Amino acid sequence: MSQKPRTQTQEPPTAAEGELAPITAMMSSRLMVLANLLKRGAILRYKRLAGLSSVEFGLVASLGRRPPMSVIRLAEAVGMDKGQISRALAELVSRKLVAKAVNPRDNRETLVCLTKAGLAAHDAIVAGAQERNRRLLEQLGAAELEVLLAQIDRLTGTAAEMLAAEKDLN
After folding, report:
1. Cα–Cα distance, 70 to 104 (Å, whole number)
2. In what order do the strands lie in the sheet with 98-103?
3. Is the model more confident about 141 or about 54?
4. In this structure, what are the phi and psi dihedrals at residue 97, rounded to the nearest 5 degrees?
5. Quick one: CA dihedral 136, 140, 143, 148, positive or negative?
6. Which of 13, 80, 118, 119 is the least buried, fewest Cβ under 10 Å from its Cβ?
7. For the chain, how many helices (H) and strands (E)?
8. Which of 114, 27, 31 lies closest to 66, judged by CA?
């Protein structure tokens, strides 16, 4: 079945006709779709495995097997402000996954770290992430993976430069 040529007054093709809208065809949109699918799957997995919300699993993952860190540093690590993470930290403390203590060098600062139970949740997150990563990449050969990772690194560098340029313009 042949299609008649489109005129400027006709509606653009639909996704069902095999063409993507210009914005969804862009690399950044495709990468965001991939990232969102991976994030949604991860959130469901970590809720099932460790009973953690997306914010909580982000905090547990960031605290990891590191020495205690300040709440401010943790907020910077997860890209949220201190107020956004305080409720999640309170929940993690009440569930005995995170311990809070006053910094002995600066009593105005609170330090947080994972408890033994928090470390177990962290280890479940890491194991789950490794399994998901393996499953995602198993379809690529070693050479394909090497090229993909190099390209992602290049694109990440360019995106960081673009962000810096935007910040300079604001």
Report:
1. 12
2. 69-70, 106-114, 98-103
3. 141
4. -95, -25
5. negative
6. 13
7. 7, 3
8. 114
The letter for the amino acid at 36 is N
Query: Rounded to whole angstroms, how far apart are CA atoms 43 and 33?
Result: 15
Phi, psi dihedral angles at 99 (to 5 degrees): -110, 140
Confidence of residue 156 (pLDDT cuts 50, 70, 90): very high
Widest Cα–Cα separation across the chain = 76
* Tokens (6 digits) for 53: 């919300």
Give the global pTM: 0.69
Summarize pLDDT for 39-90 with one digit per residue, the tens. Answer: 899 889 888 888 888 888 889 999 998 889 998 889 888 888 888 888 899 9
Helical pair 54-63 and 116-137, crossing angle rounded to 10 deg: 100
